[in-house]
């Protein structure tokens, strides 16, 4: 059995606002299977889903008291690896123009790459990054080197 990340679901407080940000702001197209209270978007090798935050709690059988304040950092970041530094800058500008809040301007970082962070209108934190040592596949998915053998 293999573990693989296939879907990242963001719990949102306002599905229409979140969908508008990702569709009009970042240019994602909703999949034909999107319906009612859920939206699905192909994002490289993975899928991004938007679903009401309270519905996620219910689905996971967590108490409503687990629900944090909208816009608070939940200890999760999402990342979009880009093919170039220019792509990082362009995507950051597009996100900000669509209503995101720039948290960290794209810059050279300690790990040898180039990255910045924005917070979407629902409070989810995204890193936009480029690193020469990462390879992207045709779908924009990150291709990691094989595991080191001992």
From TrEMBL:
Top-rank taxon, per record: Bacteria
A Pfam family annotated for this UniProt entry: Glyoxalase
Name by which UniProt lists this protein: VOC domain-containing protein
Residue ranges constituting the VOC domain according to the UniProt record: 4-131
PROSITE patterns the UniProt entry points to: VOC
């Amino acid at each position: 059995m293999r573990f693989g990340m296939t879907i990242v679901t963001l719990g949102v407080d306002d599905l229409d606002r979140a969908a508008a940000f990702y569709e009009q702001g970042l240019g994602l197209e909703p999949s034909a299977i999107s319906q009612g209270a859920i939206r699905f978007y192909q994002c490289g090798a993975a899928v991004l889903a938007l679903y009401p935050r309270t519905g996620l709690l219910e689905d996971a059988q967590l108490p409503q008291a687990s629900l944090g304040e909208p816009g608070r950092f939940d200890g999760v970041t999402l990342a979009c690896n880009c093919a170039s530094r220019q792509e990082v800058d362009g995507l950051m500008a597009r996100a900000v123009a669509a209503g995101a809040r720039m948290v960290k301007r794209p810059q050279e970082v300690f790990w040898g790459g180039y990255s910045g962070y924005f917070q979407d209108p629902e409070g989810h934190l995204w890193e936009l990054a480029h690193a020469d040592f990462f390879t992207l596949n045709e779908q924009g998915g990150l291709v990691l080197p094989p595991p080191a053998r001992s």
